[in-house]
Specification:
Length: 91
């Protein structure tokens, strides 16, 4: 059963790195996003820029959620593996 351990940890680490990369990328995209609404017609270019930023962030949101769920499942698998291993050692 020890052959699965390096693969298990490699998959978990890969998923965590992917999640961190997505988090950093989304953070860099949304750092230019303003929290205020511009209602004047003279600032239509600002509205367009903000809409483009939000479109990119919203497009990446499903990938961020999917990696978060995958990391959670992989973490549960790792913990479950070691719990089963501990139980088997006491038999």
């Amino acid at each position: 059963m020890t052959g699965i351990v390096p693969i298990m940890w490699s998959v978990w680490a890969l998923l965590v790195v992917l999640m961190i990369i997505l988090k950093i990328y989304i953070g860099r995209l949304s750092r230019d996003e303003d929290d205020q609404i511009v209602l004047d017609d003279a600032f239509d270019h600002v509205k367009a820029e903000q809409a483009a930023i939000m479109a990119k962030v919203n497009k990446l949101e499903p990938a961020r959620k999917a990696t978060l769920w995958l990391v959670g499942l992989a973490s549960l698998f790792v913990v479950g593996y070691y719990v089963v291993d501990i139980i088997n050692q006491f038999k």
